[in-house]
Design a protein that fits this description.
282 residues, alpha+beta, five-stranded antiparallel sheet, 7 helices, globular, disordered N terminus
Length: 282
């Protein structure tokens, strides 16, 4: 089979717990409750509607400047305190393909999941489908994965089937007592050598849907050790986008960091339910 196949198998083991048994998938998708709160984490298009005057939606507190990436730096960061084991699971391709996923089928989808028209759940479904149907930005390659197989196929199509790859996630060493709190960088951030990467962000949906994308412009990855004032620790994965000139002018990071598009790199921590696929440097 070769080392390439072995590396893919190791990576697949990271995802195996995220997969729903096909026989139970339809029951789970019908009854799953979409949580009230911020919907969407499309990092290149995230609007500044999360900023209201001096008030910032706490879930937007993940962005920072590259100059802040140093030992001793303290910043307020949002890491969800929800139980990740209760998050929606990835379906198999067979099950996902049996469920419509298109804005033209929106009434049928909302009816399938037994959501009330105009409800938070219905709006979240509509939001996710429309995000997945947006045209990619200049220099962006993107895809919405609705199954484990489609996510793997997308990664293979970009990296090559024999490429040495790895899946990275942010790890909460303890469940946060509060989602937003001050964290201090406790060790020198570790640069993760990678020739290319694919970031997969969760979107709100009754089953797991990932917005996976990569950019042609340079992105640097880091592993960052964070410690909270109450002793809680996080091993976070962070990305620094070196060129943001093609990002949405209304992107929340520009408001939060008080910068202009393309003026300096924008960094962000990945939430613990996001996946980062990397093609390892030789």
């Amino acid at each position: 089979m070769g080392s390439g196949f072995a590396s893919w198998c190791i990576s697949c083991s990271v995802l195996v717990l995220m997969v729903v048994e096909v026989s139970n998938a339809r029951k789970i998708t019908r009854r799953h409750h979409l949580e009230q709160g911020s919907i969407g984490s499309n990092y290149l298009r995230q609007p500044s509607s999360t900023v209201h005057g001096d008030h910032v939606d706490p879930s937007g507190k993940i962005f920072f400047k590259m100059e802040d990436l140093k030992v001793g730096k303290t910043m307020a960061v949002y890491f969800t305190s929800k139980d990740l084991s209760a998050s929606p699971r990835l379906l198999s391709r067979k099950e996902a393909d049996s469920i419509p996923f298109s804005s033209t089928k929106l009434p049928e989808i909302i009816d399938l999941f037994e959501f009330s028209k105009g409800s938070h759940q219905a709006k979240a479904v509509e939001y996710t489908i429309k995000q997945c149907e947006l045209e990619p930005l200049k220099g962006e390659l993107r895809f919405c994965a609705t199954s484990l197989e489609s996510m793997l196929d997308y990664a293979r199509s970009l990296f090559g089937s024999n490429t040495n790859i790895k899946v990275l996630t942010t790890t909460l060493l303890q469940k946060p007592t509060v989602p937003l709190q001050n964290y201090t960088i406790s060790d020198i951030p570790e640069r993760i050598p990678s020739s290319s990467m694919i970031a997969c962000h969760t979107l709100p949906y009754p089953y797991a849907v990932f917005y996976c994308h990569t950019q042609k412009s340079e992105t640097r990855l880091f592993r960052v050790s964070l410690g909270a004032e109450n002793g809680e620790k996080v091993q976070a994965i962070a990305a620094c986008h070196m060129d943001t000139s093609e990002w949405d002018l209304d992107h929340v990071s520009f408001r939060l960091l008080k910068i202009e598009p393309g003026s300096c790199p924008v960094c962000h921590f990945f939430p613990p339910d996001n996946l980062v696929w990397v093609s390892l440097s030789a």
